[in-house]
Amino acid sequence: MTDVNELEQRIITALDRIEYSADQIASAPAAPDADMVEELEIERDTNARLVESGQQNLARIERLETRVARLTDRLEFMDGENKRLQAVMGALRETNKQLRGANAEHQGADAAINTALETENEALHAARTADLAELDDILSEIAPLVKEG
Question: What pTM, to 2 d.p., does this model score?
């Protein structure tokens, strides 16, 4: 039985050495692995690029928001001008109608007055058409921004 006791003692001693070595390994600072260090640097570079990209996107968003606000203000102004032009056009039509009626009764220089009124009416119509085209331009600039936002 002494052989068994001796073997048991040797096993206990070996287990104590293993436990001591495991404690030493666990408490010792791990040396950085070259692959892990490289992966960490790659991740840091990627993170820096993402942060920079995010900042660029924020700056772009701010520029677009400013542009949308400016175009919205311009659109509101042009809408007011369009309404004013419509009111003037209505008044002009009514005045033209009255002038034609008066002209037909008096048989004066009706051809000259009619031509002048028609020309003025055409000029106003052209101005309105130009304003509508400008509004369409503004809307075409705003539409993609609204879809993005």
Answer: 0.47
